[in-house]
């Protein structure tokens, strides 16, 4: 049957117009694809090959340190960054009495360095204060989730004279995670890679390229190396995919804290993760390693109780370096064992340093306190020092009573008087 009288016939579909639109859109897509293809490393063959050689990381000062430590037959030993612990005062006494291969600052907010008020920046820069005559090589640790701010912050930090910058991608603190930083980075691998690349861009833009006070002298060149400290996964083991993602950005060092974020520090660190991290690195960067080129170093971290313990863990896992944190509390002599290792045939094995006398321990504690007051007293609460007293003052007669007195102090002068009174008994 035909259409009812008076009812208009349906319009024919305008196929030619639709086809033209599809053709135009497709043409634009193809043009954009070709444009990207041509701009990618000048159409290098690596773009077409999935088996291309990975990017060689910039080792910077780490190259010489790694070479010397391997020649000596030991791993590198470095100080872990710890908030309100590894400030300039504590690092001063560590560098003076038992310097590690590399020192780390407390972590600092990249966003804050760039966006804070002048007063806020002053407080953040206090966390980046260091002693050039004592602390080189020293690495500043930053956290953040905005590539543009990370880039600017890294430029600023490089110009302050640091030897390297470390990116925190493992801190489980909720206030840090709310900013999309720290351990939260493990939930956003793409952003993590962007942050590493932004940091590299920042240090490449830095001016004042040479720190005149650096003990590394002419060897110190910018851009300074970028490293990463992270964990093995967020709620579960994600090491294979997570480490592969980071390695694609070719950082100089990846320090693996051998726990997930969920585990915090509630369970023993599992150093099998560190061993696996080394194996993953070896597989992904095999072309670099086999051709003798620079490759990413893998450090292990978590429950290292001493230098000997760290040496054994490195031997078992193949780690290039060991990062030590909590064992340094009250023990700035910890790293002194590495300073003469391998210098002659009689020093071919690592031994933990002899325990200092009570008098020496308390003397250094007072020195540490005075340094804190002089350098940070106007910025940080004196209560920060009291976590150190718990570590310095233990294991000897009268320690409990002395510790109780020290917890009531408000300044370095009071600490000195109480300690002197105890020693005079």
Account of the 3D structure:
- The protein has 2 domains: 62-347, TIM Barrel (Alpha-Beta Barrel), CATH 3.20.20; 358-423.
- Strands 1-8-7-6-5-4-3-2 form an 8-stranded parallel beta sheet.
- It starts with 14 loop residues before the first helix and ends with a helix.
- The protein has 17 helices and 8 strands.
- The protein is an alpha/beta fold and 425 residues long.
Would you spell out the secondary-structure blueprint of this structure?
Layout lengths: L14 H25 L22 H11 L3 E4 L8 H11 L4 E7 H6 L2 H9 L5 H4 L2 E6 L3 H13 L4 E6 L4 H4 L11 H16 L21 E6 L7 H9 L5 E5 L14 H13 L1 H5 L6 E5 L5 H11 L3 E4 L33 H19 L9 H7 L6 H8 L5 H12 L2
Parallel strand pairs: 1-8, 2-3, 3-4, 4-5, 5-6, 6-7, 7-8
Output the keywords.
single chain, 425 residues, alpha/beta, TIM Barrel, 2 domains, 8 strands, globular
Concise summary:
This protein folds into 2 domains: 62-347, TIM Barrel, CATH 3.20.20.70; 358-423. The chain is 43% helix and 10% strand. The chain contains 17 helices and 8 strands.
Instruction: Give the CATH topology of the largest domain.
Output: TIM Barrel
Strand content: 5-15%
CATH superfamily of the largest domain, please?
Answer: Aldolase class I
| Whole-angstrom Rg | 27 Å
Give the topology string: H per helix, E per strand: HHEHEHHHEHEHHEHEHHEHEHHHH
Residue runs with pLDDT of under 50 for 5 or more positions: 1-10, 19-23, 34-51, 211-220
Return the structural class. alpha/beta
- Shape descriptor: globular
Main beta sheet:
8 strands, parallel
Q: Give the termini separation.
A: 119 Å
Just give the CATH class of the largest domain: Alpha Beta
> How many β-strand stretches?
8
Q: Counting H and I runs of at least 4 residues, what is the number of helices?
A: 17
């Amino acid at each position: 049957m035909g259409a009812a009288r008076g009812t208009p016939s349906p319009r024919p579909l305008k196929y030619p117009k639709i086809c033209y639109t599809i053709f135009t859109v497709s043409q634009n897509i193809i043009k954009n694809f070709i444009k990207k293809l041509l701009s990618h490393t000048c159409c290098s063959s690596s773009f077409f090959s999935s088996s291309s050689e990975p990017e060689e990381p910039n080792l910077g000062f780490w190259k010489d340190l790694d070479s010397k430590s391997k020649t000596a037959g030991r791993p590198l030993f470095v100080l872990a960054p710890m908030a309100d612990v590894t400030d300039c005062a504590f690092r001063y006494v560590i560098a003076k009495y038992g310097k590690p291969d590399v020192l780390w600052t407390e972590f600092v907010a990249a966003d804050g360095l760039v966006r804070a008020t002048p007063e806020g920046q002053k407080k953040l820069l206090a966390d980046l204060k260091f002693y050039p005559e004592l602390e080189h090589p020293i690495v500043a640790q930053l956290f953040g989730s905005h590539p543009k701010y990370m880039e600017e912050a890294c430029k600023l930090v490089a110009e302050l004279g640091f030897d390297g910058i470390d990116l925190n991608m493992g801190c489980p603190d909720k206030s840090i995670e709310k900013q999309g930083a720290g351990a939260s980075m493990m939930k956003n691998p793409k952003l993590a890679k962007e942050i590493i690349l932004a940091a590299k861009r920042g240090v490449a833009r830095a001016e004042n390229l040479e720190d005149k006070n650096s003990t590394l002298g002419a060897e110190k060149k910018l851009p300074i190396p970028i490293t990463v400290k992270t964990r093995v996964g967020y709620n579960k083991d994600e090491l294979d995919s997570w480490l592969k993602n980071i390695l694609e950005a070719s950082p100089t060092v990846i320090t693996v804290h051998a726990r997930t974020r969920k585990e915090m520090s509630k369970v023993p660190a599992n150093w099998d993760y560190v061993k696996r991290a080394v194996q993953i690195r070896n597989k992904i960067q095999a072309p670099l390693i086999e051709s003798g080129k620079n490759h990413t170093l893998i450090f292990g971290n978590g429950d290292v109780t001493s230098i000997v313990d760290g040496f054994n863990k490195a031997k078992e896992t193949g780690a290039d370096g060991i990062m030590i944190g909590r064992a340094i509390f009250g023990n700035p002599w910890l790293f002194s064992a590495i300073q003469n290792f391998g210098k002659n045939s009689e020093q071919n094995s690592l031994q933990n340093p002899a325990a200092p006398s009570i008098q020496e321990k308390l003397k250094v504690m007072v020195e540490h306190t005075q340094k804190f007051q002089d350098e940070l007293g106007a910025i940080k609460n004196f209560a920060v020092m009291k976590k150190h007293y718990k570590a310095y003052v233990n294991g000897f007669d009268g320690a409990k009573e002395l510790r109780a007195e020290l917890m009531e102090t408000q300044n370095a002068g009071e600490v000195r008087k109480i300690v002197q009174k105890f020693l005079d008994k």
